[in-house]
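Need tokens for this chain, all 114 residues.
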Amino acid sequence: MSDTTNLSADDIERIENNYDALLFKLAAIEAANEETIPGAVIDRLMEGEAPLLVWREHRGVSRGELADTARVSLGEIEDVELRDGDLGLRKMVALARALRIDAEDLLPWVDKTP
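Here are the structure tokens for all 114 residues:
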């Protein structure tokens, strides 16, 4: 264990400044890795479109490609996109992973129950 009692006030300030600079750089790296979502995608979700359809089209993936990647049947994808069908949690997670989103992003934004 090192002895820090011999550090001067200038040394401590320099260390703190380096620490703050490192935190700033890490925050910038994290922000650069975050995806921005176009307003058109948000608008479609707010209008109540099926999130699976919106995200799949945003990613530029066909239903067949998504079915193959997520190992979910094409019929199940069509059912969810066109008729508000339900999927089990495992299939929902598989679809979300294939679309590079969180599973909760596949939940409807608008409650369509009367």
